[in-house]
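Encode chain A's predicted structure.
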Amino acid sequence: MNFKKKSLVLAMSAVCAMMITAGCGKVNVGYVDYARVQTEAPQIKNSMDEMQKRMEEFQKDAEKQLKEQGANIKSEEDAQKFQELQQQLRMQGAGIQQQYATQVQSKIYAAMDGIAKEKKLDTVVKSNGKDGMVIGGVDVTDDVIAKLQ
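Encoded structure for chain A:
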């Protein structure tokens, strides 16, 4: 009886091991030079240029507001209001940058996802060009740039 249980457990273990390894195959990985996409993809360049213009306009307006309020500081309360304005403007500037960064990232990730499906890749990872190196895999940087025309 004990021999039968051991044999059954061994047979079940072997079947489970075969089932687990049967699903293991070659993993197709793609990689993207993210920095290159940011500098070469027309949609991304346009978004970055738009952000730059918007930030320049915002900075001019912010400097004007700060100059006007800074000239009118006559009390502790005025100084406190000035500091609050500075903080508010910093947060608005960061919000503008975050909005565009999220927009750019979404566009790039959507293009990466599309290329992964087209080329039947299991995953696509970001590479930092010179700093980061991916050994093996398929470079899909040019495909992502083309998709972002």
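Strands lie at 29-33, 123-127, 138-139.
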